[in-house]
Amino acid sequence: MWFTRSGTVSRATAVLSGGVFVRYFSQKRAVNVRKINPKVPHQEAYSIARDLYDVIRTHGPLTVGNTWTHAQEAGVSGLQSKTHMKIMLKWMRGRKMLKLLCNHVGSNKKFLHSTLPEEPQKEPPVSSTTELNLQTVKRPVKLKGRKKSK
């Protein structure tokens, strides 16, 4: 037995483990966002996603309402409604294009969509002639209070 102490279960352990057991199995499964249907052909979904990504990247983390406003101002073509935009945002999260942040403001929650941090682009290597000119000669380090051993 898991929670036995010399053949008996302590009352505190039984109550505690029972609460954890009930809490664990009462939770709903997470939605598999990779299987979201974008309701449009994939080519069109990718073009809408690219436009929405640009809107979110330029205006920072946005709520769904602000994203809808900015998307209408930017003229994102292909979005049929605000509900369709929400489906597209969920589809983009499943494709690892966006992430969903939760800000707690008092007892309220505010959910924000933001772009994932982009990979830092490596700069092309600088020619070796400029590297040689930039190098400096190091001075020898002097040791204080120690005598040099021979």
Summarize the structure.
The protein has five helices and four strands; from the N terminus they run ββααααββα. The protein has 150 residues and is of the alpha+beta class. The strands form two sheets. Strands 1-2 form a two-stranded antiparallel ribbon. It has a two-stranded antiparallel ribbon with strand order 3-4.
Number of helices: 5
CATH architecture of the domain at 41-117: Orthogonal Bundle
* Net shape: flat
What name does the CATH topology of the domain at 41-117 carry? Arc Repressor Mutant, subunit A
- Give the fraction of residues assigned to helices: 40-55%
Structural notes for this entry:
The chain has a domain of 77 residues: Winged helix-like DNA-binding domain superfamily/Winged helix DNA-binding domain (Arc Repressor Mutant, subunit A). The protein has a two-stranded antiparallel sheet. It starts with a strand and ends in a 16-residue tail after the last helix. By secondary structure, the protein is an alpha+beta fold. Helix 2 packs across helix 3.
Overview features:
two-stranded antiparallel ribbon, Arc Repressor Mutant, subunit A, flat, Tumor necrosis factor receptor superfamily member 21, 150 residues, alpha+beta, single chain, two-stranded antiparallel sheet
What's the topology here?
Elements: E1 4-5, E2 8-9, H1 11-25, H2 42-59, H3 64-74, H4 82-94, E3 98-105, E4 108-115, H5 128-134
Antiparallel strand pairs: 1-2, 3-4
